[in-house]
Amino acid sequence: MKTCEKVIIIGAGGHAKVIADIVIKSGDCLLGFLDDNKSGESLLGYPVLGKIENINKFEKTAKFIIGIGNNYARKDISEKYNLEWYTAVHPSAVIAIDVSIGEGTAIMANAVINPSAKIGMHCIINTGAIVEHDNIIGDYAHISPNAATAGTVSIGELTHLGIGATVRNNISICAECVIGAGAVVVKNIVDKGTYVGVPARRI
Prior knowledge:
Low-confidence stretches: none
C-alpha cells in the first residue's frame, strides 16, 4: 500500500491550487499552504499555515513543493531553503518508463513525457503538454499547457515555453528565454530573450 506523504505547498495562488489537486488525487496528504499574503486564509478547504519565512517550523513534518508559476521565484526559494522536495505527477500524466524527473517538479493532467526525456528540478510540465523522446528540460523551466517539443529538443534553465508553442525536432533553446504563445521554433536559439511568431523571432 502506498504511504501517504505529508505535503506543504509554497504559494497559495492559482498554480498552487492545481498542484494541490495533484497531491490529493495522488493519494498524498496535503497539510496546507505557505504564502506571504494569505496567512490565516484557506484554499480548497486547506489552511494557509503562515508566511514562507515560517517554513522551518514545518521542515521536519512534511515535504514541500513550490506552487508558484514564476520560474525565477521557484529558483530563489529552492536555493534559499534546504528542504525535502515533493515531486507532483498527476495520475493522468503519461510518463515513459525511463524518464528522469528532478525533485520539486510538477507534471499536470494529461501531460505526455516520452522515452529517455530528462526533466530538471522545479520544472512545470503543464496541462496537456507534450515532451517527446530524448528531450532535456533544464531546471526551473516551464512548458505551458498544450505546448509541444518534438524529439531530441533541449530547453535551457529558466526558459518559459508559452501556451500552444511548438519546437521542431533537434532544436536547442538556451537558458532564460520566453517563447510566446503559439510560436513555432524552427531554428536553434542561442541568445536569451523573448521570441514570438511563426517562425519564432526575437523581439
